[in-house]
Amino acid sequence: MKSPKPNRVLFLSNCYGEDRSAALIASKIRELVPNISPIGMSLISNGAEYEKRGISVLMKNKTPPSGGFTRSLSALMKDVPYFYIPIRYLIELKRIRHKVKEAIVVGDVFLLVLGWLGLHRKMVFLAPAKSDYQVPHSKLEKLLMRKMAIQVFTHDELTAINLRKEGVLALFLGNPMVDGLCEIPNPPANAGSRKKRDKSQIPKSKNFIGILPGSRNEGYKNFLKILLVVQRVCELREDISFISAIPATINLQKLVTFAQKEGWMYESQSLLKGKAKVLLLYDAFVDVVAHSDIIIGLAGTANEQAAALGKPIVSFVGCGAQTS
Questions:
Q1: Which CATH number fits domain 7-179: 3.30.390.10, 3.30.460.10, 3.40.50.11320, 3.40.50.2000?
Q2: Fewest beta carbons less than 10 Å away: which of 91, 106, 111, 197?
């Protein structure tokens, strides 16, 4: 007797953070319902978050210079050569729409609209992009959610309450990015060798500061800004240890080159300048946050995750379109 054909569930996501949330949800669904076959489809990334959890990726795209945050005319002009991506995405959705049983959108309303146009159906919508604490959804976005979403899952309870008042079927059930903090598919690796990291390398200090520069392209310049803070702190205190979580999307050699131009030396997986020393660890976010008493963060989702782990965060104006 043949086993039943697996039900294909398509996960649509915007980019790195949304990919991770979608991949975490897909992994859990696959674990709970073996007959489900999740498929990832990221709008502007290579889908690495899906692949490292064994989830097939339907299509891969290059991330545009703005990282999807076109908040200025100059950023918009740089993104012009990438305008074909949503069109290609829509064409692919139309091609597979009869082969997909269900679809879950993790991202913004623009992606929800793309999914609705391509698949011709309502979808489950996880909406982490906006919150009523900062940037509420517009009237048009609420209208589109009512029309295109079976169910909306929000970033927080306040947003869910306010959306329900507007007739949107909204619930807040938590943040997958926090639920998956201890879920590490691959062992943390050292930024220099990218082999299995020896945790003894983490300095044993009562005064330990972690650094989160961010995972997008602005992470390089953000890191240089944070290094200025590191220098100043080390001039005032000599009993401080610094450690930075380097995301998989940041090229270590490029990061080191930027720092070297500012007078830093790179030695034994650490940046050195005067009294200051910063240990760089690759793909070791949870370890870095766990060992830190306080975080200097110019990241987006990573800052939220650190806060969820109970760590105080120092932040300031950084570089790039995400800065507010």
A1: 3.40.50.2000
A2: 91
